[in-house]
Amino acid sequence: MKPGRQKIQDIDVAEPPARGPIAWMARNPVAANLLMVTLLVGGLIFSFRIQKEVFPQIELDMVQITVPYPGASPEEVEQGILLAVEEAVRPLDGVKRVESRAAESVGTVTVELEVGADRNKALADVKNAVDRITTLPQEAERPIVQLPERRANAISVVLYGDQEEKVLFALGEQVRDELLKLPDVSYVELQGVRPLEIDVEIPQETLRSYGLTLSQVAATVRRTALELPAGGIKTDGGEVLLRTAERRNLGAEFSSIPVLTGADGSPVRLGEIAAISDGFAETDTEAYFEGKPAVMVDVYSVGRQSPTEVAEAVKRYAEDLRLRLPAGVAVTTWNDNAKLYDERLGLLLRNAMLGLVLVLVVLGLFLEPKLAFWVTMGIPISFLGSLLVLPAADISINMISLFAFIVTLGMVVDDAIVVGENAFRLRRKGFHLLPAAVQGTRQVATPVFFSVATTVAAFFPLLFVPGNRGKWMFGIPVVVIAVLSVSLIECFFILPAHLSHTRPPKPGGLYERFLRLQGRFSRGVERFVEKIYRPAAAAAVRQRWITLATAIAIFMVSVGLVAGGQVKFVDFPREESDWVIANARLPVGSPVEESRVLMKRMVAAARQVIEENGGPEISTGIFSMVGVSFGRRRGRGAGPHLCAVIVTLVPTDQRPIGAGAFADKWRVKIGEVPGLESLSFDSSTGHGGSKPIDSELSHADIPTLEAAARELAGELAAFTGVKDVDSGIELGKPQIDFKLSEQAIAAGLTTFDLATQVRAAFYGVEAFRQQRGRHEIKVLVRLPREQRRTLRSLDDMMIQLPGGGEMPLGQAARVLWGRAYTTIQRTDGKRTLRVQADVEEGKANQQEIMRAAFGRVMPRLAGKYPGLGFERAGRQKDMEDFFDFLKFGYAMALIAMFALIAVPLKSYLLTLVVMSAIPFGFVGAVLGHLIIGIPLSLVSLMGIVALSGVVVNDSIVLTDAANNFRRAGHSPWQAAVAAGQQRFRPVILTSLTTFGGLAPMIFETSLQARVLIPMAVALGFGVLFSTLVTLLLVPSLFTMVENFRVWLESNRQPLEPTEHLGESSP
């Protein structure tokens, strides 16, 4: 008989009663059910204890140092603060990078830590290093060294109305105190308010008439307004405490302080020579809500608090507060992130339920209903069981971890499908329930275990993705690994018990009708396998070199689609937000009045856009501030030349306009503003304030650095689709430098005397600070505001001489005009500038622009400006770090997968056959992005990395079956085709369930899901396409490898498959 017509021997032979844990659990349904209930109930209990949040609150690997230096210019802050702190912290262990920023009156240093560094140890080391610094200026305040805070804004309460600042501040303090008394609230912050301050203002004429200086008055106030314990006296009747109690809490109480004694012997008190005000610090910060003065109270969810519970408690409080507020003051809740959490939770749960239904339908069509039910039960068992381990990994219930559950929705039943389908196949051959369940599980236990292990190995590198983005996505691999591990337990120790004790259904009814439908579908699948798939597989095996060449060509085409730009690549997908931020910057030194006018213009323009695109119903409020710029968190920049507006919108499905389109229309409505330095808009979430195009330039010479930054900004602006280009250069305020004159030196005046008197006059002399309630109150002695607002005041100022007498400032010092820097940025000891730009989605390819910038523009600038340094920054730096990690992490994953596959197959060549599916997962992912019309991104690459472990699962099962046929004595081509025929149902079923579980997310139209869709597309389409590879290419490669092995063993050419190969079936 010809080899192709040989009848393939049945390899399924009834075995004697088996022993071992699988058989024991199958015979003991009580133990199996107790294990199932433990996983279900335990997970359900833990689900109420796990923290809930919109996005994971990650711990940033950095330490922040803030040093206030009141009244100092950025250059003084750099020289006096930054240089000393940088030198102290840069040599410390675990320090990766040191970034610093000098602004007016404050210096900040951010110490970025190496991956894996102990944050608490680093904090202690940095504190010790900063404490050892002895050269900080005397006027600088105590350095604040801290780790970045980890908390999430749940909701805000806004108090607004045409009221004085003191009224709104007092109400804000009252609201804050009352909110903290609520059992669900533990952390509250007041926003849009100025610090409290007591000002003692004395006119220069008064000081001269009494022969006083501001420093002398401040010293008198310091020595008088105090409270000092003086011990105690132990009398026979008990101990009596002693203290001096001259503490003054309110501004009016300072009036009675005696400053000096008059000619008649009567005291001259402070209130007689000074105007004392108990108010707010002179900062140009103003907050408005819906155009009216406002105070905002931010409420945070901390630790394991649910944002929903916190927000609900705050909303109930706001309703009660509304009835108690004075006339002219309104209250509203704003920036409800708990609502955002509920909406996105609903979005993901809806997709999960749709995916579950699709999985159940697919299983029900391919398998008998009861078997499909028990296979599907693996989903809730695995999901809830995984919740038992998530708290140990510090994983919360958030949008990322919920998406991870959706990712596993189709994969989690893969092992149960293989086990259940094999048991079902044995039952159709006449096996009884218990032997079919036990033997069916044991036959596929090895490939099932190693299939799950390879998937875990593929996701494992994602645990170590560097940077904040890696920490943000950390929940995905943790959840997937936990769910798959529990599913393996369920598949081996719970499912067989249910399969071995399934009772036959009662005849008749809906169940029987569905059973008939399933039977017809099952027979249709068998006909498809017999009439279509088996001949196709036989042809692929027969023309295996053509099959291989075709597969390679398809892979090359997919690579070309990416390299040629047909499928674009972005660093991170833009997620639609429910707010739009506009930041405006006037020239530094512009009066706050001009910023206020601009802010009102921006608010009016926003209202016009709202009216023309759905009316007031599409917005939940407009919050605006003068004196700050907004970033991801309010108040990132400060200065009277800044203003910012936030428009919050209703959810995307409730408004006719997207946030990006709103920003574009808003920009048009604002129009051209004379003198405006920059106007930028932000309407997407999750980028940490960084723009898509981001580079950092460094040079020792500031004019050279600025020239290079301007040139680079000009080059970027020339690219099509590039907008909001920012060179990072801000023209600073005019600055006057004083140099001591020879006349003053001859009179005995020192530079210190001159500097302290000028500082005292225009900044003030800090008498002392004291606590009033929760506020630290600064008491300042200085000239009246009107004498500090004009340059004429410099001409009128008299300098007190050490030997008595006075001298005009103009004689005591030479006046040199210059310009101060607004901010000075430094990285690792070098002055830097960040050049950033945004891109219009669909019009510009940010990677092409960055390649052009770093491949053509930057080298030219480096040649033009010797000593110029440049590197990627922000999101671009994160992406560069990710690709560096990918080279190593993915290689390690592939090596681990190779080892895990080689162990059960006992063949290096067959392992390569199994892993041949991996490149075609990439092909499917690329085609999926092309079909859906979205660009590849870092999220897509994470999906492709994880996909590598998923696509080999079917190959392992098929190759293991082919090996079984080979061991039974069949030829390579017979074994390959027979294995494909036997495993066609589980291979197709696992692929369809994986795609079905992800399909609702893949085709989700909500803009809020855009950040997660790329990974779903990569996994779903990658698995779907690789199935074709598994069913056609893997049998061909298996035949090649086995023929090669036969040739090596027999030293003769292998026989070619006959034309009747299709008849060789098991």
Molecular structure report:
Helix content is 51%, strand content 19%. The chain is built from 35 helices and 30 strands. The longest helix is centred in the last third of the chain and has 38 residues, at 1013-1050. It has 4 domains: 3-49 and 341-570 and 879-1063, Up-down Bundle (Multidrug efflux transporter AcrB transmembrane fold); 62-146, Multidrug efflux transporter AcrB pore domain (Alpha-Beta Plaits, 2-Layer Sandwich); 152-197 and 284-335, Alpha-Beta Plaits, CATH 3.30.70.1320; 576-685, 2-Layer Sandwich (Alpha-Beta Plaits), CATH 3.30.70.1430. The protein is an alpha+beta fold and 1066 residues long. Helix 20 packs antiparallel against helix 35 (1013-1050). Residues 1-9 and 1053-1066 have low confidence and may be disordered. The strands form 7 sheets. Strands 1, 2, 3, 4, 20, 21, 28, 29 and 30 form a 9-stranded antiparallel β-sheet that branches. Strands 5, 6, 13, 14, 15, 16, 17, 18 and 19 form a 9-stranded antiparallel β-sheet that branches.
